[in-house]
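Supplementary Methods S3. Input chains for the assembly prediction are listed below.
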Amino acid sequence: MSEINLNTYAENTWCKGCGNFGILTAAQEAIKKLVAEGYPLEKIAIASGIGCSSKIVDYINVNSFYSIHGRVPPTVTGIKLANKDLSVIGFTGDGDGYGEGLAHIIMSAKRNIDVTMVIHNNRVYGLTTGQFTPTSPTNFPGKSTPRGSVEHPLNPLELMLAAGATFVARGYSGKTDQLANLIVEGVKHKGFAFIDVLQPCFTFFNTYQFYNKKVYELEGHDASDLEAARTRAREWNYDMEAEKIPIGLFYRVERPSYDEQVLRGLILAEERKRSDIPAFIESRI
Amino acid sequence: MEDFTILIGGKAGDGIRQIGGLVAGLLGKLGYHVFFWDDYPSLIRGGHNFSLIRACRCMIQANTSDVDLIVALNEDTINNHKWRLKPKGKVVYDADAFEAEGTGMKFTSIVKDAGGKPIMRNTAAFATIGKMLGLEWSVLEELVNTSFKKETETNLAIARAAYEQAGDATLNIETGPAEPLPLMTGNEAIALGAVAAGLDLYIAYPMTPSTSILHFLAAHEEELGVVTYHPENEIAAAVTAIGGAYAGARTMVGSAGGGFALMAESVSLAAQSEAPVVFVVSQRPGPSTGVPTYTTQGDLNFVLSAGHGEFLRFVVAPGDVNEAYELTALAMNMAWEYQIPAFVLTDKCLSESTYCFETDGPEAKEVRKQDGLLWDGKGEYKRYLDTKNGVSPLAFPGRAGAIVKGTSYEHDEAGITTELPEAITAMQDKRMKKRPELIEDVKNLEAVKTYGKADSDVALLTWGSTKGACVEVAEKLGLKVVQPVILEPFPTEALKSALKGARKTIGVEVNVTGCLSDLASCHGIEVHEKILKYDGRHFTVDELQKRVEGVMK
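Predicted structure tokens for the full assembly:
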């Protein structure tokens, strides 16, 4: 595995101690595992939005599209519809994915497009220097809410289960092996795979100790049981009063993916026999 | 009768558009040139809908205000339109529903007796029109058979009863042999032009008057070998199109001004990432929701300037279905040749009206997909390789040996983010380097069309669907018409040359300020008068003629 070099020459500009390093390690590890299992490297494409999380595409030497804020789900959808043979992974942050682009992620889960979405959820805006996000805890004292945010956090796992996601998981940037495995499983899953990744922001919301203390791996959980998945997702509501925070695969079900149902087997990006349009027009007389 | 107009009116839900389409199709089969304006308010039931179908033995792309026959399924139709009736014009109405002057037909009773639904009054009206056009029953029978897939027997019984009841009513039209022409709406022509130039994926969120592109392509997906996708909103539509183009599929999106406003960030993304995407914008009166089902030419400046940052774009504005077909294909090919966003600017009048498509011109036959510059597979692939003309060879994810990195950030040749001053300058220059070649290309294309009397010293400067009425008025008054069909890069020299000899240039547009006239002025072209209309309706020939005569005095 080690012969593939997935690093680029781009200078890494994440803060020292940033949780994104763990996600980068896991993502590269996941790609190496997939290649070892026979996925051609050139048929892997990744995409990201805007924010600290999204710099990841500059740091992985693989096909990528560095998109715009909130728009990773439609970006990866376009890539997948153009070439269904590609394995497509989107990386986005919580501000990006749950704030700016929430509608896209819900609708992508609902339509079950065969892509994997990894959400770097540090529960704060990093690149814009520390404002509350949809998953920040209640009373979060961000720069735009100096007296504390009065909003309650969104539980993205519950939301994705409600939206009909066919693969719902949670990882932690401090547990890179487990996260790499979740990404591999997400890519192998034929349908929309959602992975919320808990990630400390060393500079604006340092949650290392909190997560190290609370996080545990799901065991004895039946991932085919939707009700059980909902119950486990509700164990933590993304506030700070957590007893324990489960990570792992919460839910997985097989459903026909959007792309396999609408593409009629076509690889749109490849040359194929075209219809005779002048003849089609003549036939309309 | 060489040139006549039929108006069919009723309320929404009466099937007015359907019968308008049938009558237009029938006239097309008889070899007439047809212009069919579908007038409907933004509602599903009630209101007043009418189909106005003009047929002529010679080429027409507009209608006149007056009509030869009114077919009224409700009283409003007569009240709203009797002013249009020519001195010898005829009125046919549903005598079971209301009283009026003219030929009363028992449409409601006919439908009732046949056990049909109320909407089938339109079948009775269609058969009546067929009779008045002098058609044999067998011709109508076949049309009803092929047009009404559901409850065909009931529709046939209704048509037959109406045909007999209509007696010897006639419009006295000549139905001698003539080559039939295919009919097409502007939106259908846009869709087909895109497919001819290799469209793979059409993505749109419904918005009048662009919606029928989506409907048409979705209905013919397999025949045309394309895929359509209706996502959650216009933002998703445009970004998906960019993702698809990055991965090698030819993509197009369509909307009206309001939906296109949501796509503005994507226009900019397409420019920075050099993703070739075609945006169709079909204009309706604004600002904001405005008047959803009527027409305007008010979004020219918006389309020319949408998207933050400075970048190249290619904009075409067709004025009829042949132009819609050819120019959409051109937009697609230019987008891929230069890896820039391209725009097809249309309007409700062109998008939803039905015209005849000329199949024998050389242009229509030459439309085909032209490949962009592809990577030769040698050396290390760089998505944004700085080349002599600024165009970087294309490779797509999946290609062995290439790592394809597209991006919204300023970047180096490999697509890695950069903030270095010299790298920023180099990349801005690289993208702008395409401009001279693009301008040169436009010079070699028919960017400006002219019609009418070539040596006239009065020229009508117009664009888009307004061209149809201008050409007819110009022919009557001995004027010249000048119509730019490529609006960016602006064909300044071609326009100047087309207007050479014109002592007076009159801008004719369906908008409030005269967008094209002002744009031409910015390029040093003097427009002496503006004839503008902004009531949501297109110019009729007679109305425009009066306005032109007014400013020529």
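Chain A has a mean pLDDT of 96. Chain A touches chain B through 55 residues (CB under 8 Å).
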